Amino acid sequence: MSIEKYDLVVLGSGPAGFSAAMRAIDFGKSVCLVEAQHLGGAGIMNGALTSKAMWELSRDYSIASSVMRGYRASGLNVDYKQVQKTIMQAAKQKQLQMLSQIETYAEPTEKFGNITLKHGWGKFIDSHTIEVKSEKNTELVHGDNFIIATGSRPRPMPDVEIDQERIIDSEGIMNLKEFPERMIILGSGIIGCEFATIFSNYNQTEVHLLDRQHKVIPYEDDDLSSFVSKNLENNGVIIHHTANLRCIRKRPDFLEVVLDYQDGHSKVIEVDVALVAIGRIPNLDNIGLENVGIERTDRGYLNINEVCATDDFKACNVFAAGDVSGHAQLYSVGELQGRYIVEALYGNLEYPLDYSNMSTLMFFKPEVAAVGLNEKACQKRGIPYKVATYSNSLVNRAVAMRAIDGFIKIIVSDDGKDRILGMRAAGPQASTLITSIAYQITQKGTLKDIRQNVHPHPSISEGVQECLRVFEEKSIYKPKAFPDLIKLKSWKPEKVKEA
Ligand SMILES: Cc1cc2nc3c(=O)[nH]c(=O)nc-3n(C[C@H](O)[C@H](O)[C@H](O)COP(=O)(O)OP(=O)(O)OC[C@H]3O[C@@H](n4cnc5c(N)ncnc54)[C@H](O)[C@@H]3O)c2cc1C
Ligand SMILES: NC(=O)c1ccc[n+]([C@@H]2O[C@H](COP(=O)([O-])OP(=O)(O)OC[C@H]3O[C@@H](n4cnc5c(N)ncnc54)[C@H](O)[C@@H]3O)[C@@H](O)[C@H]2O)c1
Q1: Residue stretches of the annotated binding site for NAD(+)
Q2: How far is the CA of 283 from the centre of ligand 1 (A)?
Q3: How many whole angstroms from 380 Cα to the centroid of ligand 1?
Q4: Range with the lowest mean pLDDT among 67-71, 139-143, 454-458, 479-483?
Q5: What pLDDT, on the 0 to 100 scale, is given for residue 498?
Q6: CATH number, domain at 14?
Q7: Is residue 136 part of a domain?
Q8: What distance in angstroms lies between residue 411's CA and the mean position of ligand 2's atoms?
Q9: Band of the pLDDT at 496, cuts 50, 70, 90?
Q10: What is the pLDDT of residues 235-293, one digit of tens each?
Q11: Distance 193 CA to ligand 2 centre (A)
């Protein structure tokens, strides 16, 4: 059997694998991209793009059905099948762009390398060979270097069998035939809260959300968790705080869900669909890790170093990027790592891999964005900080939009240096606002560095400007006049550490 040879072989075409492959052709390399399922991985299908398409559509619907804006739409109705069709059009559009680029670079040119896409399951035979197995055939592929970018899948819930019809996870959303009348979402992290937002926006489904703790998105500070909880409830979501799932009994026409609360009482509810969203686990089974001597961490991820190598850089030809790496499971992290590996291999590394400025966008109602440290993280690390909060209800643009629900919260170090440590933004355009502070975190910026920036009017970003002014007691609107809307406080550990 003849073996095709490549400079770089990438397992998985999600954000991590695709970005690595595309960066490698910039360096004139021959690349083989192996994909077992959907081109684009969870970055496109059953993941980031499809869920965001669904969120956007649900938000439009929710705005159209509102009655507080001087208009009242009549005859408004929504059809799940049509919604699904629109989402699939979005996914298809993106996949066709990816395919078009792959086809454009099928042959090498003087300046660029070339890329070959193979559909099939990739598995290491040895450290320079993988087997690619599809329904039609099995072939061997040789590579000088490899990147494992096989992503993640939903974490199974003990004793809950996913049938992807009535008991689904995020991979089964597209299998639903219509809006369920009643639904429970198990897990109140980002995916759980995003789908609770989406289904409650459509107002066709009675949405229950199981939250094992007191607050949803438990890793965030209490003010943000409470804000998200309150808004979900205002949108009609029934949140079962401090509840654990005992079991789901499948009846012919409904599911019987038994919940046990921390205070000892239990509740039985009836729903039509249960959606499990309790985290994601890496796809590392049956890819031949044992044939290349790579071990997994206690948490099941790949043990990678500062350049995403699975061993000492000079001795290593197997790298890992994206959700398998054990870093935050975000599209941008996968892209960053994938591109970084290629630059480490074929280019000159100009800066170390930096995760401190990675923003997380959460598509709730309203949207929420996070970058850098929050109060919980500062306190855990013993970092003294000051924190200012500024409500959107004082920001003219938000007032004009009639969308005053939200706030800006910025944290700076309280060590005389005033270094920007983190920001949380909730409200319209939060996803755009976060990048200015993310940039300051990358640049190790201080309050002094950014206070000269003048923000245009009327913009939501004026809230960031005012929030920064609060630290120096120079804001136009004052905490004394609006104690509930503008806040400044500080925290110091007993033993102070450097930020
Ligand atoms: C519902 C949902 C919403 C999300 N929303 C966001 C968001 O708004 N913003 C954000 O930043 N992140 C979001 N994420 C997370 C984001 O999608 C992931 O972090 C990202 O897709 C991970 O990229 P990756 O390349 O590591 O893996 P993946 O995207 O999972 O891609 C891995 C690919 O590898 C393939 N593969 C697996 N094993 C093999 C094998 N042996 N051989 C060949 N191919 C293989 C898989 O089929 C898959 O296509 C969301 C995730 C979900 C599930
Ligand atoms: N907008 C975005 O950036 C975005 C959107 C969706 C997903 N993602 C990524 O996908 C990853 C997975 O999302 P997720 O929401 O599934 O995970 P998550 O880690 O954000 O949240 C999981 C939730 O499930 C709860 N949980 C865990 N085990 C449970 C159990 N047995 N019973 C009840 N609750 C349980 C946890 O307490 C937590 O609240 C995230 O870490 C995130 O990085 C990102």
Answers
A1: 187-194, 279
A2: 10
A3: 30
A4: 67-71
A5: 64
A6: 3.50.50.60
A7: yes
A8: 25
A9: low
A10: 999 999 999 999 999 999 999 999 999 999 999 999 999 999 999 999 999 999 999 99
A11: 9
328 and 372 belong to one structural domain: no
| Ligand 2 neighbour 190 (Cβ under 6 A) | yes
Query: Which ligand lies nearest the alpha carbon of 334?
Result: 1
On whether both 250 and 295 belong to a single domain, the answer is no
Q: Which domain holds residue 387?
A: 366-498
Mean pLDDT for 291-301 is 94
Domain boundary (239, 255, 278) is at 278
Round to whole Å and give the CA distance between 129 and 144: 9
Answer yes or no: are the C-beta atoms of 491 and 381 closer than 8 Å. Answer: no
Q: Is the CB of 149 under 6 A from ligand 1?
A: yes
Based on the fold, state whether residues 27 and 53 are members of the same structural domain.
Answer: yes
Cβ atoms of residues 269 and 257 within 8 Å: yes
According to DSSP, the residues that pair with 269 across neighbouring strands are 257
Residue 192 CB less than 6 A away from ligand 1: no
The confidence band for 349, taking pLDDT boundaries of 50, 70 and 90, is confident
Q: What is the pLDDT of residue 499?
A: 64
User: Does 119 participate in catalysis according to the annotation?
Assistant: no
Ligand 2 close to Cβ of residue 157 (< 6 A): yes
> Based on the domain organization, do 104 and 182 belong to the same domain?
no
Task: Examine the domain organization and report whether 340 and 441 are in the same domain.
Answer: no
Same domain assignment for residues 261 and 189: yes
Which residues belong to the annotated binding site?
52, 122, 150-152, 187-194, 279, 323
| Phi and psi, residue 2, nearest 5° | -80, 145
The number of domains in the chain is 3
Domain assignment present for 352: no
User: E strands along 81-190, which residues?
Assistant: 114-119, 121-126, 129-133, 138-148, 152-154, 167-168, 182-186
CA angle 343, 345, 351 (to 5 degrees): 40
Tell me: do 200 and 227 sit in the same domain: yes
Q: Are residues 94 and 109 in the same domain?
A: yes
Contact 55 CB / ligand 1 (< 6 Å):
no
Mean pLDDT of the chain: 96
Q: DSSP state, 473?
A: T
Question: Annotated binding residues for FAD, as ranges?
Answer: 52, 122, 150-152, 323
**Confidence class for position 312, pLDDT limits 50, 70, 90:** confident
pTM for the whole structure: 0.97
